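Whiteboard transcription, Tuesday session. T.W. wrote the C-alpha cells on the left side:
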C-alpha cells in the first residue's frame, strides 16, 4: 500500500523543504522560506534533546567523563593532542608525546583527527575533559540532525524525520559504546548522504528530478564524507565502500537509461565537476589516512590482527534484540539475555523495540514507493547478516569474513556488530515512511468532512506516541566517574617521563595527564603493545635499582613519576620504601607522588 499525497493535497506539514505544491522549481525566496526556520529549529531541538538524553554529562564537565576511565580518557587525550600538534608543530602530528620513543604513535588507534579544530580550544587537563564532554553531547545532536535531514530529503514529513533522528541517534545499542567516541561519531554518515541526495535531486518520493540538482550540496556531501573518515576507519571504512558502490550503481543506472532511451539523461557539467572535485577530496583523504595506518603496521607487525578477533566479537542472533545494561528502560529487563552473550559491550545490539515495530509497519504502509521499501528491507536483512560475523552459517563465509578476506582494510574491522549503524539507519528510514503515511492519512478524508476535522485535531496526539516511545528507549543510566587530576609532580618532571605503575588501563589516565604541556612519556595503551614498551616494563619492574636506572638512561628517560596509591598488586607496590642510595638519582615527595630525577 502506498499512501503518497500528491498535488494540492500536500500540505506544508507533509511536504519536504525541496517540494512545493506543483512541479515548478521553487524560487530562492521560497527555498529559504521553507528551509531556514525548519533547519534552525531542527538543529536547536537536536542540541536540546542531546543535552537531556546524555545527562548528566554536562553537570560536571571539568571533572567527570562518561562511562569509565578507559577509552574516554584516551580519546580526550587524542582530541587534545591533534589540536596541540596542528597549532605547534603540524609536521609532528603522527609522532605523539606518548609511547616514547616509538613513532607514528598517534595512529595506534582511531585518531578522531576530524575533531582537531575543537582540540585547539583551551589547554590543559580540565580543558581536555570539558572538550570531550561537549563533543559527547554534540555528536549525539549531529546524529539526530543528520538522520532528520536525510529522512526529510528522502520524502518523510517532519514527524517522520523526528522519529528517524531520535531513533537513530539514541538507539539503545549505542549506550554500550558510551565510552567509544569514535563509534558514536556517526552523524556525518547520515548528513553526507542527505547532502549528496539533495545535490543530485534524488529522493524516495520522486526519484531523480534533474531540475532539483544542487551542485553545491553535492560537493558539501563529499566533504562531509571526507570529514567522517577522518574520525576513524572503525565506522568510516564501511561508508567508503558504500559510497563507492553507490557511485558504481548510479553510473550503471545512468548508462542503462542512456542505452535504453537512446538519449543522454540530464546531469549537468557543474554537478559532474562537483562530484569529481568532492570525490577526489574524499578519495585522497581516505588513501592518505590509510597509508598512515599501513606505516604503523610496517613498524609494528604485531598491530595486524587476524580473523580470530572477528570471530571472537561476532554476536549471536539474540544480540540484535538485547539491550545493553546502560539502557534505563531495557537494561535490567534484558539481564538474562545478556548472560548468553560472550562479550555484551559489542553484542548487545538492540536498535529499539519501537523502531523495529515501526520499520516493520513501514514495509507495508508507507509514503515510499514499493520498490524503495523492498530495497530498504533487503538492506536491513543484508546488514543484519553481515553483523552476525562468523556466526552466520558457522563461519561467516559468505558474509562478513568474506569481506574481511577480499576488501582492503576490512579485516581490521574486528567487530561485526558495528554494522548496526547501517541497520538502524535503514530501520529509521522505514519507520519515517510509516509515520509519514500515518500523518498523511488525515488528508484522505474530504476537505470539509467531520472526519477530516477530527483527524487534524487528534492526529498530533497520535503521532506523539511513537516520538515519545523512541525517546524513552534512548534514556541512559551511563555512569560518569570522576577523573583523577594529574599530580603536581607531573609539571615538575623533566621529559621524557616514565609513570609508575606502568601497563594496563591506568596508562590511559596518564596519557590524559600529559595534556598539561604534553611532556613525552613512555606510557601508552593501544590495541597492541609495541616491543619497546614491553621491554621497558620488564626492565623497570625492580625500579629503583642500578639495572633499571641504567636502562632508562639508555633510552633517554630523564624522570620517573611513581604514584604509590596506584601500585597495589603491581611490581612497584611498596616503592616508597625502596632506597635510592648509590644510584646517582634523587627522589622528591610532591603531594603524595614520588618524583625521581635521573
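and on the right, the sequence the group agreed on:
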Amino acid at each position: 500500500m502506498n499512501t503518497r499525497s500528491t498535488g494540492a493535497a500536500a500540505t506544508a506539514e507533509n511536504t519536504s523543504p525541496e517540494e512545493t505544491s506543483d512541479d515548478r522549481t521553487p524560487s530562492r525566496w521560497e527555498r529559504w522560506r521553507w528551509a531556514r526556520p525548519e533547519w534552525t529549529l531542527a538543529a536547536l531541538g537536536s542540541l536540546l534533546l542531546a543535552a537531556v538524553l546524555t545527562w548528566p554529562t554536562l553537570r560536571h564537565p571539568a571533572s567527570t567523563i562518561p562511562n569509565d576511565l578507559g577509552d574516554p580518557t584516551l580519546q580526550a587525550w587524542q582530541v587534545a593532542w591533534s589540536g596541540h600538534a596542528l597549532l605547534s608543530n603540524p609536521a609532528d602530528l603522527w609522532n605523539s608525546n606518548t609511547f616514547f620513543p616509538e613513532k607514528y604513535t598517534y595512529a595506534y588507534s582511531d585518531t578522531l583527527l576530524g575533531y582537531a579544530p575543537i582540540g585547539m580550544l583551551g589547554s590543559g587537563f580540565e580543558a581536555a575533559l570539558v572538550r570531550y564532554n561537549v563533543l559527547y553531547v554534540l555528536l549525539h545532536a549531529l546524529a539526530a540532525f543528520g538522520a532528520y535531514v536525510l529522512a526529510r530529503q528522502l520524502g518523510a514529513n517532519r514527524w517522520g524525520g523526528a522519529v528517524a533522528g531520535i531513533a537513530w541517534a539514541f538507539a539503545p545499542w549505542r549506550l554500550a559504546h558510551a565510552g567509544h567516541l569514535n563509534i558514536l561519531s556517526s552523524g556525518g554518515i547520515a548528513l553526507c548522504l542527505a547532502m549528496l541526495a539533495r545535490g543530485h535531486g534524488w529522493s524516495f518520493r520522486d526519484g531523480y528530478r534533474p531540475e532539483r540538482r544542487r551542485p553545491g550540496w553535492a560537493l558539501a556531501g563529499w566533504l562531509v564524507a571526507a570529514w567522517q573518515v577522518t574520525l576513524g576507519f572503525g565506522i568510516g571504512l564501511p561508508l567508503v565502500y558504500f559510497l563507492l558502490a553507490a557511485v558504481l550503481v548510479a553510473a550503471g543506472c545512468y548508462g542503462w537509461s542512456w542505452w535504453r532511451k537512446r538519449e543522454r539523461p540530464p546531469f549537468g557539467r557543474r554537478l559532474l565537476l562537483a562530484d569529481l572535485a568532492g570525490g577526489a577530496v574524499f578519495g585522497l583523504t581516505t588513501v592518505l589516512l590509510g597509508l598512515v595506518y599501513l606505516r604503523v603496521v610496517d613498524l609494528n607487525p604485531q598491530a595486524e590482527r587476524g580473523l580470530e578477533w572477528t570471530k571472537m566479537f561476532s554476536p549471536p542472533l539474540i544480540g540484535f534484540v538485547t539491550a545493553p545494561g546502560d539502557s534505563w528502560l531495557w537494561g535490567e529487563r534484558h539481564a538474562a539475555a545478556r548472560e548468553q552473550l560472550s562479550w555484551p559491550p559489542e553484542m548487545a545490539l538492540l536498535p529499539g523495540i519501537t523502531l523495529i515495530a515501526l520499520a516493520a509497519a513501514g514495509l507495508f504502509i508507507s509514503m515510499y514507493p514499493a520498490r524503495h521499501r523492498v530495497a530498504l528491507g533487503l538492506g536491513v536483512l543484508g546488514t543484519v547478516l553481515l553483523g552476525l560475523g562468523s556466526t552466520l552459517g558457522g563461519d561467516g563465509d559468505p558474509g562478513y569474513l568474506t569481506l574481511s578476506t577480499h576488501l582492503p582494510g576490512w579485516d581490521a574491522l574486528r567487530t561485526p556488530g558495528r554494522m548496526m549503524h547501517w541497520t538502524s539507519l535503514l530501520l529509521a528510514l522505514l519507520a519515517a515512511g510509516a509515520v509519514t503515511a500515518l500523518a498523511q492519512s488525515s488528508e484522505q478524508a474530504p476537505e470539509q468532512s467531520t472526519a477530516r476535522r477530527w483527524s487534524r485535531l487528534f492526529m498530533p496526539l497520535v503521532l506523539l506516541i511513537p516520538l515519545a516511545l523512541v525517546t524513552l528507549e534512548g534514556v541512559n543510566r551511563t555512569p560518569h566517574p570522576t577523573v583523577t587530576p594529574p599530580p603536581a609532580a607531573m609539571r615538575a618532571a623533566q621529559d621524557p617521563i616514565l609513570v609508575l605503575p606502568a601497563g594496563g588501563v591506568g596508562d590511559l589516565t596518564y596519557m590524559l595527564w600529559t595534556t598539561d604541556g604534553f611532556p613525552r612519556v613512555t606510557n601508552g595503551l593501544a590495541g597492541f603493545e609495541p616491543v619497546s614498551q614491553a621491554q621497558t616494563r620488564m626492565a623497570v619492574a625492580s625500579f629503583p635499582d642500578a639495572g633499571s636506572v641504567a636502562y632508562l638512561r639508555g633510552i633517554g628517560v630523564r624522570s620517573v613519576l611513581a604514584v604509590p596509591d596506584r601500585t597495589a598488586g603491581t611490581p612497584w607496590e611498596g616503592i616508597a620504601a625502596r632506597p635510592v642510595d648509590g644510584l646517582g638519582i634523587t627522589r622528591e615527595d610532591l603531594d603524595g607522588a614520588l618524583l625521581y630525577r635521573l
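Someone added at the bottom: The longest helix spans residues 269-299.
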